[in-house]
TrEMBL record:
Recorded family membership: Belongs to the fto family.
GO biological process assignments: DNA alkylation repair; regulation of multicellular organism growth; RNA repair
Cofactor(s) the protein requires to work: Fe(2+)
Subcellular location: Cytoplasm; Nucleus speckle
Cross-referenced InterPro entries: AlkB-like_sf, FTO, FTO_C, FTO_C_sf, FTO_cat_dom
The protein's name: Alpha-ketoglutarate-dependent dioxygenase FTO
EC number of this enzyme: 1.14.11.53
Chain segments carrying region Disordered: 161-197, 262-283
Organism: Hippocampus comes
Length: 527
């Protein structure tokens, strides 16, 4: 907000310079200020992998899995301009812009045997292809060395300089690249004792966030404001929710018109870097997609702009993501990207939240005879812990999940059962809060006026702060669900405000609206 405004003010009408491959000093700039960026040209990936991945992306589009997210940016609801879907390790989630995405599990070799039937064979095959790409990236990133990076950089310049050259020239470079990418070859140049500078520890990418956008279908794309790089598909940002210093690997696929055909090697007319490039027959080339990079909060270092051909990959290594921002500049063709990440999942997996629920429910005792419930302890610290878990499961899981409508159950039922179970646990926690409240109010009656017991005050305060938090967050989710943007969604994608129940629902221990209860507990504390 403020920092950004100040930067734009300082800049006035001027633009900061940036360099692309055709500019003098591009390579030096890359080496000096963007050394964490690595480009892997399409030709250094196995051809079958390209074919499977590209077919998978088209399948996911055909099935309608890619959807725009209704995220929150500075307290405002906005749709992302790209459509997305998350794939990843079973039970993993990825949180960005106040939105938790739930991964469709990629069906790797080992999970296949467990006979899961959560999605149809076509979708399963697509997920598996992206898992294979993920495995390729895990290995490739861990093998990257300074030498490789420089070799790759040299090629960018080389290829740009010879852009007007014929196919034969490109063919020869392809074979050069595949030699370089052989494991044995690169191992021999590396001493085991001293990993070269810039060496990245082996990365285990646990999710990939897929992006898709067809610029032709977008009525308005923002202009890149600082450098004048052109129309942005994704504005300047750091990737959120990652293990610090972990790499990000991106596969870029721009699909040119003949659909379904595997085009991992860009044809001649697809290699241009911008509209300015003209090819032989007088037909103007299509503008390519580009990635923009800038040093965060710096208006002196020139920006870097890197055109991507279909099938190209890039890595953001080391701390590039934290020291720099990146944006995606739209080309003419529709484009997919698969962005592989090491998500920070300490509080973001299904097993994590399930075990949290178990912790809370330890404090709830069910009488085996009557089935009636009671609390095991009333210690404020324990109760606070339980109420926090209650809020966590409600707002970080249930409401996040249902806010995204039926989108998960439509394609893949993997999350359905776990979500039902989490909701059952949550409902037991509603019972716990009800019992806790009853205790706080009952002891009130037993005590003499004017004498407020310390422990009761503690209990009431603990309860009150959890209830206020819950009340406010329920309101925020109600607002998000009923926003004018949410109304524009078709029924199957529309946000669902769940859990929600009416005032006279006999199955629920407490009302949805907590205003009355909050008032009661507050007035009890004021005595
Ligand atoms: O599409 C890309 O190349 C990267 C998109 C991106 O920056 C993101 O999804 O965070
Ligand atoms: Fe990003």
């Amino acid at each position: 907000g403020v920092r950004k405004r100040r930067l734009l003010q300082e800049l006035g009408d001027q633009k900061i310079p940036f360099k692309g491959p055709s500019n003098q000093g591009f390579q030096q700039l890359w080496d000096s200020s963007y050394s964490g960026l690595v480009l892997r040209r399409a030709c250094s990936l196995p051809a079958e992998l390209h074919c499977r991945v590209q077919a998978a992306l088209l399948t996911l589009r055909k099935k309608g899995c890619l959807l725009r997210d209704l995220v929150r940016v500075r307290d405002r609801d906005v749709f992302t301009s790209v459509s997305r879907v998350l794939l990843g390790e079973p039970g993993h989630t990825y949180r960005y812009l106040d939105t938790r995405l739930f991964a469709i599990p990629w069906h790797s070799e080992d999970t296949e045997f467990k006979g899961q039937n959560c999605c149809d064979p076509g979708l399963r095959a697509a997920c598996k292809a992206l898992w294979e790409l993920n495995s390729f990236f895990c290995l490739d990133v861990s093998q990257l060395k300074e030498g490789d990076r420089l070799a790759q950089c040299a090629k960018v310049v080389q290829e740009t300089e010879t852009k007007a050259s014929d196919e034969a020239d490109v063919e020869s470079k392809h074979s050069e690249d595949s030699r370089n990418s052989e494991v044995g070859d690169s191992e021999s140049s590396c001493s085991e004792h001293s990993p070269p500078r810039g060496f990245t520890r082996s990365a285990k990418f646990n999710v990939t966030l897929l992006n898709y956008m067809d610029p032709a279908a977008m009525s308005h794309l923002k202009e890149e404001p600082y450098y004048g790089m052109g129309k942005m598909a994704v504005g300047w940002h750091h990737d959120e929710n990652l293990i610090s210093h972990s790499p990000v690997a991106v596969y870029s696929y721009s699909c040119h018109d003949d659909k379904g055909k595997c085009q991992h090697m860009p044809s001649k007319e697809q290699r241009g870097e911008g509209r300015t490039v003209q090819s032989g027959e007088g037909s103007s080339e299509k503008a390519s997609w580009r990635i923009g990079l800038k040093v965060a909060w710096d208006i002196h270092t020139p920006g870097l702009m890197l055109p991507l051909q279909s099938g190209d990959c890039y890595y953001m290594r080391d701390n590039l993501n934290s020291t720099h921002q990146h944006c995606i500049l739209a080309g003419d063709a529709a484009r997919f990207s698969s962005t592989h990440r090491v998500a920070e999942c300490s509080t973001g997996t299904l097993t994590y939240i399930q075990s949290r629920c178990q912790e809370a429910l330890c404090n709830l005792h069910a009488d085996p005879e009557t089935g009636s419930h009671s609390l095991t302890t009333l210690r404020p610290a324990t109760m606070q812990h339980c109420e926090e878990i209650h809020n966590e499961v409600e707002f970080e899981w249930l409401r996040q999940y249902w806010f995204q409508g039926q989108r998960y159950t439509r394609f893949c039922s993997w999350w359905s059962k776990p979500m039902e179970e989490l909701e059952k646990d949550w409902k037991l926690m509603e019972t716990m809060t009800m019992l806790f409240l009853a205790k706080v109010e009952e002891e009130e009656e037993e005590e003499e006026e004017g004498q407020v017991g310390e422990s009761r005050r503690d209990m009431a305060e603990t309860l009150l702060s959890a209830l206020i938090d819950r009340h406010q967050q329920r309101q925020t989710w109600r607002d998000r669900c009923h926003s004018s943007l949410a109304q524009t969604l078709p029924p199957e994608e529309a946000p669902v405000d769940r859990p929600f129940w009416g005032v006279d629902d006999p199955g629920m221990p407490l009302p949805f609206d907590l205003a009355d209860i909050i008032n009661r507990v507050e007035s009890l504390l004021w005595r």
